[in-house]
Write a structure and sequence with these properties.
Blueprint (H helix, E strand, L loop, with lengths): L4 H7 L1 H16 L11 E14 L6 E11 L2 E6 L5 E8 L4 E4 L1 E6 L7 H6 L2 E6 L4 H12 L6 E4 L4 E2 L10 E2 L3 H14 L3 E4 L5 H14 L2 E4 L20 H4 L7 E2 L1 H8 L6 H14 L3 E2 L2 H12 L15 H6 L1 H8 L3 H20 L19 H12 L4 H6 L3 H6 L17 E4 L13 E6 L2 E4 H10 L5 H14 L15
Parallel strand pairs: 1-4, 1-5, 6-7, 7-8, 9-10, 11-12, 13-14
Antiparallel strand pairs: 1-2, 2-3, 5-15, 15-16, 16-17
Length: 494
Amino acid sequence: MRKSVSEVFRSNARKWAGRASLVFGALLTACATQPAAPPLEGDLLISHVRVVDFSGKAPDVREDVFVLVDEGAIIAVADTREGLIADAEQDASGLTMIPGLTDMHVHIWDEAELGAYLSWGVTRVRNMSGLPFHLTLAEQVEAGNVLGPHLVTTGPILNSAGPNAQVNHQLVETEEEARAAVAWQAEQGFTRLKVYSNLTREAYDAVRQEAEARNLIVTGHTPEGVRGPGVPFEAPFDIAFGEVLGDGFETIEHVESIVWHGLSDRQDEAAARALAKRIAAAEVPVTPTLLAYHNLWRVADTQGAALTRPGTEMLNPVVQQTERDYQEFWASQPPGPAAQSDAFYGRVTKIFQEEGVMLVAGTDAGIFTNVPGLSMVDELRLMVAGGLTPFEALKSATHAPSVVLDREGLDGCALERCAADLVLYACDPLADISCLHVPDAMIRDGEWLSREDLMALREAARHHNLERTQENVLGGLAAQGADVSVLGLEGATE
């Protein structure tokens, strides 16, 4: 089993301490011949590479450097190879290396999808609708038994009955039901809770109290309470958006959901800017997921043709079958209104950026028509189209998630002591965000993956294990008390 990043640096402490003592000794010995510093040894040396880090307010670019990796961590970024020894070396002349991307909003249904994320440069994901098998899968990834991005997951979605309730949600109405559901999730091993739009005030208050008592993280949609007649245009929400802002959410999801709840679905840019100031003041990060709505518009605009565009074969067919009614609905919708909303959500995202809201990139990949991995490239392109710079968009997929996930300085960076989860391109993503479509290579947990390796992972993602999916998904849903018979999966085929 590979060591964690912190363990690597503890194991390398003597190397650095030795070098430091030599330097100190040289300062005390005037005019003496300084002994050569001992070489720094590692597993992999990436030579002549251009490195970009996104931790600061502007890109930190270093040209033609040498990056030494040891046991899954960067231990040196040097201007010369002097004093660097490695078991293997990769010449990266002409390539730009950036931290691996983090997708902060995905839905994983089977391990077959994991390779698709890696093939497009995504090295960490936050799964936002967890089942017990996700906890096991996360452990398998960290142990090196399954090749995929690092996996963080919430538990099952906590919701109440209402217009947004779905069969995979853990439905709770009362304080007692909510506390029992949170207790069950904690006992399973989940450390994050995802709350949803229809939660009643009673249930939501109980979820928050139980989460605080158990030291669990809360994220998701802002709960609205019971949706009465006339909401939101003629009557207020049962739970106002502002009531939730101070509740310590890890992130709030979806710009379109924020517009719905925070602006009563009004496309008013002045009101959006005022709302952005309130969110920034509350220091709550936002996951825009622009692609989630954009792909609804694409399906409407193409009368359904976008549902079978290249890449959609990597979507899990079991889940796709459960969404057929939803797909048919959007394929029949007029594209005009959706296009107007789509453009407004892009402008709101830019307003949030301008007003200091921390943005983290997420895609809703794995559902409807959002392709694993590829969706991250599309999401960052939409953020740039909305007015963000490529640097700002890339920061939302690298450094910002590391801050939110409490891994700043370990993840989402390309500096000494950072995890060796890195992506290399033959183009410059700071100049053209579409560069992200074609990774040239990847370093995943210190291991070099060539372009051919990445394409093999992508190809493997096209081959689904339907029996395993049904066992994991149906078993997990049954364990949380869902009625799986309504899914109608009997005819699911590859």
